[in-house]
Every structure is written in C-alpha cells, then in structure tokens.
Amino acid sequence: MFAVHLLASYLTKLKEDPIKKVDRFLYHMRLSDETLLEIMARFQAEMEKGLRKDTNPTAAVKMLPTFVRAIPDGSEHGEFLSLDLGGSKFRVSKVQVSEEGKHKVHMESQFYPVTGEITRGNGSQLFEYVADCLADFMEAKDLKQKELPLGFTFSFPYWQTKLDEGVLLSWTKKFKARGVQDTDVVSHLRRALQKHPDLHVDILALVSDTVGTMMTCAYDDPYCEVGVIIGTGSNACYMEDMSNIDLVEGDEGRMCINTEWGAFGDDGVLEDIRTEFDRELDLGSLHPGKQLFEKMISGLYLGELVRLILLKMTRAGLLFGGKASCALHTKDKIETRHVAAMEKYKEGLANTKEILTNLGLEPSEADCAAVQQVCTIVSFRSANLCAAALAAILTRLRENKKLVRLRTTVGVDGTLYKTHPQYPKRLHKVVRKLAPNCDVRFLLSESGSTKGAAMVTAVASRVQAQRKQIDEVLALFQLTRDNLVDVKNRMRAELEYGLKKETHPMATVKMLPTYVCGLPDGTEKGKFLALDLGGTNFRVLLVKFRKGRSSVRMYNKIFAIPLEIMQGTGEELFDHIVQCIADFLDYMGLKGAQLPLGFTFSFPCRQTSIDKGILVEWTKGFKATDCEGEDVVDLLREAIKRRNEFDLDIVALVNDTVGTMMTCAHEDPKCEIGLIAGSTERGVVRMAPELESPMPGPLMPVLLQLGDPQYEKMTSGMYLGEIVRQILIDLTKQGLLFRGHISECLRTRGIFETKFLSQIESDRLALLQVRAILQQLGLDSTCDDSIVVKEVCGAVSRRAAQLCGAGLAAIVQKRREDQGLKHLKITVGVDGTLYKLHPHFSQILQETVKELAPECDVTFMLSEDGSGKGAALITVVAQRFRQLQKEN
Ligand code: BG6
Ligand code: BG6
Ligand code: GLC
Q1: N or C: at which end does the chain have fewer Cβ atoms within 10 angstroms?
Q2: Pocket test residue of 301, 415, 443 for ligand 1, highest count of atoms within 8 A of CB
Q3: Which stretches make up the Hexokinase C-terminal domain (predicted)?
Q4: Is residue 413 exposed (0-12), middle (13-18) or buried (19+ Cβ within 10 Å)?
C-alpha cells in the first residue's frame, strides 16, 4: 500500500506544508479511536487465550504465572540482595526493608556495564559475569560474611512453576546468549555462583521487571495492581484471579500474571496495522518475527523506526533535498533519546537541527518540522498501542471484580516513559478514553524494579522460614535404615519373649495361641455360617465348600452396628448380632437351619481352646459393657438361647488375621502368615509355640498381638488419622496452617478416617480435589494448606508402612531361622482397608520387608474374600479335629 509508484503522485501535493506532508506519508501509522478499540478487543481475546490451558500453547501472548500472590502488606522486613538484568542498565543492589510497621526501604546500588559480547555470547559467560559483579558488589559493601537472600529481576519471558525457577522461553531485546533458551536461569546463576564459594547467597525469587515495578509501587500505594514497562522493551503484569488461571492449580486469591505483551501480534493478528517500516525493522532485528508489538512501541526500536522512515522519505525526495547521509543509512544511528529530544516543547526544533546535522544531513527549517512530525507520529503510535493494551487489562480487572467503576493504580517504569516529554500525558489520556469506567492513577516507580523484587524476596524468605518449621516437624516421622533395623531387632526379641512361658506374661507382643492346628487341605465340604465382627463392616456369611480347592461359594450380607449398640450393654450387642443372623437366615431361606458357625472376632482375646476366648479389652470404638473378661463364645451362645429361635453350633472363634491367613492358605499352601493393615493392625504367624499347648500337633498359629500400644498406634489406620490431626493442630498453632485458626472440625477426634487418608494421598488427585476433600471434612484450607496436609499424611503413612514392614521382616526371619534355612520362600496373606485402599502403603511395606529381610522371598497375597471364608475353613478343620478326638 505504500508502494513507491504511488509516492510520485504525492510529490507535488506535499510540497506545501511539511506537517501535512508527513501526515499523509504516514497516514497508516495514525490510529483512529475505532482502530484502538479494535486492538483493545483483540488484546482482551489474546489474554483469554493465553490464560486457558488448551489455547496457551498456541497463544502469542503467554500470560505467564509469576507465583507472586499478593502485593506487599507492610510486614516485609530484612536485608536482601538484588540483581536487575534486562533493561537498559544492569544493577546490583542491597535493599534494607525496615522492621514491621516502619515502612521504610534503604537501597544501595551499583551499575555494571553489559557489553554486546556478553549479551550475545556464551550463556555461561553471561551468568559468570553477573556472579562476578555480585561478588564485586559484596566485597565493596563488606557483605561477604553475611548470608543473604537474593531476588533476581530478570526481564525476559520465562516459564515458572515456582518462584525460584524460570525456564527461558526466548531471549528478547538485545540479548541472545547461547545455551540458555529452554533452561532454568536460576540454575545457571547458582552454577555461576559456585565459582565464588566465599559468597553465601540464597536465590529465592526470580522476578520480571514488570512485577518488580508493580510491587515497588504497591509498597507505597496498596491500590496498585498493574505494572507497566515502557523502556528498552515493553510489557505489563497485573493481578489475575486464580480461578481464571488454568495453568496453575488452585482457585483461591490472585496471582500476578506477566503478560509478555511484547509478543502480541507474533501470530499475525496485527498485520493490518503493521507498516512496511515495521516489517523492515523486524527483518533487521536480532529476533526477526518476534516481539512485533514491542517493536512498534519500545525504546529499543522507536529511533530506528524514525530512521527508516526518514530514509524512505529522503529517497522519495521528500526530505533533505533527496540527499541522505552515510549515517542515515546506518542502522540504529537514530536512538529513542534523540526522538525524545526532538519532541521537546521549546528546544525541540533546535535539538532536531543539531541531531540531523550530527547525522551529516543538511536540514532546512521545513525538514526539521517534518522530522519532528515523524517523531511525533511514531511515538504517539507507541503510546496509543500501549494504551489500548493497558485499557484491555484494566477492563479485565474491572470485570473480574464485577465493578461498574474500578479505582486502581498502575505502576510504570522505563526510560521511554520517563524521558520522553509527552509520552506519559498522551498515554494517560488515551487510556482514560479507552477505559472510561476506570479511575486510574499512574505511579512512576521511583526505585526501579529493585525495591519490588526485594518485597517478593522478603515474602519468599518468610515462606522459606515457615517451610523449615514444617520440615522440622515432619522430620520427626522420618526413619533411617538404622532406625528400622533397630525396630526389626527389637521385634525379633519380643517374639521370643512372648513365646517363652517364663517371659510371656511380661511380653509386650502378646503371641497368643489360637488353637488352630491345621490348614485347609482341599477336602473341605459342607455348609457353614460365619460371622465377621471387628473390621469396618459387620458381616454374616454362608460358605459352601465342595471338594477341591477352588469350589467355594459364599453369600454374605453387611449389617450396620449402630454406635449406641457398640457402646451399650453386652446383652444389647450380642442380641443385635443374633438378630442379624436371624435376618440373614431368613434372607437365605434357611430359617431354623442348624449350621456350624465360625466366629471371626477381631479383638484381643485370650483363647484356651478353639471355641473359647476371653475378651481382653475392646478396641476400635467398641465399648459394650459386661464383655471384657468374659468368654465371647458364651456371650453369643446365651444370646442365641435368649432368642430361642434357632440353634447354632459355634465351633471356632477366630481372629481376622487367622481368618485371612486361612483364606489365603486355601489357595496357596505357602501362606503361613496373615497380616491385617486395616482400621487396626495385627499380624499372625504360624510357628511352633513353646507355650504349653493343650492340643497335639506340631504347629499352631500364634496371634501376635502386635498391639504393643505404641506400635499399633504408629501403624494402624485408625490411629494414623489421629496422628495427622495432632500434627495439623501443632502446625496451626505455629501459624503454619489454616491461617493459624484451629477450627471446631480440627478439634474433632476421628475426622481422618483411613479412607480420607488414602484419598488425600492419591497421586491422581489434583490439589483442588484434595482441597475439596478437606473442605468436605470441614477444614477450610487454601491450596497451600492442602499441599502441607498431603505432606503430613504422607509422612505419617510412610512411617506406618515402614514400621509394619520392619515387624514383618522380624517374623519372616524368625520363620527362616526356625527352619534352619538359608533362604525362605513364604507367602503372607494380607487384608485391611489401609493395605487395600492406601495408594502407597502396600508398596512401602513390601519394599521395607525386602530391604530388611533380604534372605526371604516374601510373596504378598491379598485376601479377596475377607476373613469370613477363613473362619469357615477353620470351622471345618476344627470339626475334623473334634471328630478325631471323639474317635480316639
Ligand atoms: C527499571 C528496572 O527501572 O526499568 C529495569 O529496574 C527495567 O530492570 C527497566 O528493565 C525498564 O526500563 P529500561 O528503559 O531500562 O529498559
Ligand atoms: C476384612 C475382614 O476383610 O478385613 C475383617 O473380613 C477385618 O474381619 C478387616 O477386620 C480388616 O480391615 P479393616 O480395615 O476393615 O479393619
Ligand atoms: C521484554 C521482555 C519482558 C520485559 C520487557 C520490559 O518485552 O520480554 O520480559 O518485561 O521487555 O523490560
């Protein structure tokens, strides 16, 4: 559209007024209000595209999350180092933020030169140079002996997943150092700092200059929620609602988004407003095809745009009598500072003449006026474009807040904005025109990005200190290998202790004989009833065996045991159980049937025979009176008698561990151990007891009541949740969780059931889902809280699995030694909600056993049929044994 042949026709017309001449020549660079509104709308669409997960990969405007979640609140304090790289100057500073309340910042800075050799050389050299400058600064300021946190203002587009990491997406402006793109710049700097082992700096935050500017201004004006740079480059950031940021988990509060608006148009959406000068400038730039919006706006390019226009006009005979100088032909000979000088009110004309003369040109008065007009059009376009994008951001902020009018402050910095005489005024005016419903205050950043970067670092440093406190608490739950070996050895000693007659009464690991003296051999047949009480569910089952290992049929029904019955009288409890049996028999069409019954009763019992067991004490929330110290088989028989409706032959009393072992042994004869990791946890192992046994037979399963109170409380599902709750209370008291508020819910015992623990730790759940679970439990958590809760659960359940593994390792090793084997192959039958539902428990348990008992090849077999089937099997075996006794 600016084709040369058209120019000729202008020639004659343009002779008259130099201003009009330029206006006509640069017609395409003068943007109407409609065009600006159109650009504003396009930028609004771009922001949306960049924020959405599905469209972000193809979006030109990247809308980068910065992990800066709040503006300063005045509580920031401490001493910080700051690096500021990427603008026109490289600066190293020390920032002292005053103690709480005083709201004062003291800065000492030093500028260091950055040559083209460094910005376009090798990446590692660039960062080594930065580290050297820092070292020099610290030496000069006598800071070497101090341990200081550092904020790194690095003004390029990078992808952050946390505050102290950023993968460079691309270099912009004058930088193009090799080997940095697609890598983490913080790692580069850390590596470079390793060459200065005498420095103790901790890089805590990587910050864009826009963010630094916003934070600097927000320190003085809490309304500030936008940062704009109009300098060497151009860019903006603003506080976006988390719920709109697809790229970061969580929907609470806000996060600062670095728009990287310089890349607006890189996908072609601004082609209709770009001119041949913009295209020419882009082709000759360090990053062709990139930062097309920035190239129409920022300081690095405005002078060059003016030069290209002047050259073209001269060639067309519109300026300098058609005579260009060598300098006018030379790239970057006109700089933005020249443009600013030429546009000055009073001295502008004189400046123009001087600048042009210095370029080897011979300008007439009219030439000078024309050149001034070129500068005005170019810089005005810049302000207009900036205003359109900024108005889009402000409108978005207003809409996010659902306000009719928005009152807000924009923090601004950058040499073009600061040094160009008309720029700020023009920008402000156009923004107000394009966003009439926003009352905007523009605040010039007085201390660059440095002060703001220090604020971000101060917050990060506070978070780091809190992290340390959390780690200290969680460290209490970490077990070393030595700890675990020690637990195994102690368990090993306890096993011997519990089996020996003399030491048995004092043993903490009870080693209770179960009087189950045989394993299923596949010849079992008949119909049996089984009860299964003591796990998460109470079940009544009918088990039908036909000859052959796999031909088993089971029918079962789950019944609820209401809390008032669990904690009522023993009579009520056992009557309820019998009621459930009656219902079940009815349901199965077996009313009045006389069946043998196996009773899985998963509480600590002292058995004296297979069908006799004195309840030692209730656990797992049961509290029914008049049961402890009584034979539970008798209690059940009495209840059946009271009902006087059917008769049942109670053949065996079985613990769930034994039931599980028997269930698994029915399929795998190598199964000699039963383990429950459920709402409580016990283990059972088949081994030769040295206790006086009233029954013959070489082997008898011994119930290891692993319920040494300390051990069980560290390992079983029911207690894990309680431990988690206690830790959460502790962390909340320290102000590290739930904003320091201990809610009614957190005070409630038992809120963390095993299933919640398992859900929270699931790797498949996103943070938001974890948060939803916590909220379901009545814990009003932020996403950060949710991360901590998940970690706490992880630490507690890991320890449980490790301890359980250490105990099991002791048992398998004893089995191996007892049999005098070098190597033992053994199967453990396992059941329990913790083992089955928890995402990591079983794996950690298995790994621990492998590590601590390397001579044993342990197979874990999940009991699919619960303990009920095992109870029925024991009933068969016991009946067989009874028969044998009768015959003898
Ligand atoms: C400064 C910041 O104040 O503004 C710089 O501290 C930033 O880091 C700059 O890049 C932008 O301006 P310019 O003109 O120096 O690029
Ligand atoms: C089941 C058994 O499969 O596992 C129960 O049948 C047993 O009797 C239970 O107590 C253990 O798991 P939890 O987690 O339900 O206590
Ligand atoms: C460039 C950079 C951006 C920076 C801006 C201002 O656009 O890509 O990160 O904020 O310049 O310095």
Answers
A1: C
A2: 415
A3: 226-459, 709-876
A4: buried
For 847-862, letters b (16+ CB in 10 Å) and e give ebbebbbeebebebbe
Backbone phi, psi, residue 269, to 5°:
-75, -5
Grade residue 275 by pLDDT with cuts at 50, 70 and 90. very high
Alpha carbon of residue 256 to chain centroid = 17
- For ligand 1, the distance from its centroid to the CA atom of residue 415, given in whole angstroms, is 7
**Residue whose CA lies nearest to ligand 1 atom number 5:** 87
Q: Which ligand is nearest to the CA of 88?
A: 1
> What is the per-residue DSSP string for 93-116?
EEEEEPSTTT--EEEEEEEE---H
Q: In the 8-state DSSP scheme, what is residue 827?
A: E
pLDDT tens digits along 45-70: 999 999 999 999 999 999 999 999 88
Tell me which residue of 615, 588, 621 sits closest to 599, measured CA to CA: 615
Ligand 3: lining residues by beta carbon, under 6 Å: 86-87, 155-157, 172-173, 208-210, 229, 231-235, 260, 262, 294
Cα–Cα distance, 25 to 29 (Å, whole number): 9
208 Cβ below 6 A of ligand 1: no
- The CA distance from 83 to 92, in Å, is 5
Q: How far apart are CA 542 and CA 590, in angstroms?
A: 10
- Distance spanning both ends of the chain, measured CA to CA: 116
Residue 228, C-beta contacts closer than 8 angstroms, at least 6 positions apart: 210, 213, 234, 235, 236, 386, 390, 410, 411, 412, 413, 414, 417
Q: How many of the other CB atoms lie within 10 Å of CB of 28?
A: 17
**Is the CB of 291 within 6 Å of ligand 1?**
no
Query: Which atom number of ligand 2 is nearest to the Cα of residue 865?
Result: 3
Among 403, 408, 375, CA closest to 308: 375
Task: Determine the atom of ligand 3 nearest the C-alpha atom of 294.
Answer: 7
**What's the predicted TM-score (pTM) here?**
0.72
Distance CA 443, CA 220 (A): 10
Going from the Cα of 618 to the center of ligand 3, the distance in angstroms, rounded, reads 68
The beta strand positions in 2-119, using DSSP E, are 64-65, 78-85, 90-97, 105-112
Whole-number Å distance, alpha carbon 496 to ligand 1 midpoint, is: 74
For 324, residues 6+ apart whose C-beta sits below 8 A from its C-beta are 311, 314, 315, 361
Residues near 611 by beta carbon (within 8 Å), at least 6 away in sequence? 633, 650, 651, 652, 653, 878
Residue whose structure tokens are 């009152």? 407
pLDDT level of residue 775 (50, 70, 90 thresholds): confident
Atom 9 of ligand 2: nearest residue by CA position: 535
Which of ligand 1's atoms lies nearest the C-alpha of 86?
Answer: 10
Which ligand 1 atom is the nearest neighbour of the CA of 448? 3
Residues with a known catalytic role = 539, 602, 656
Under 8 Å CB-to-CB from 122, ≥6 apart: which residues?
Answer: 177, 178, 179
Question: What pLDDT does 9 receive?
Answer: 54
Q: How far is the CA of 834 from the centre of ligand 2 (A)?
A: 10
Q: Which two tokens stand for residue 130?
A: 């930065």
Tokens of 839: 């995402």
Identity of the residue numbered 820: G
Residue nearest to atom 1 of ligand 1 (CA): 448
pLDDT of residue 682: 45
Task: Convert the pLDDT of each residue in 239-261 to its tens digit.
Answer: 999 999 999 987 778 899 999 99
CA 819, distance to chain mean position in Å, is 50
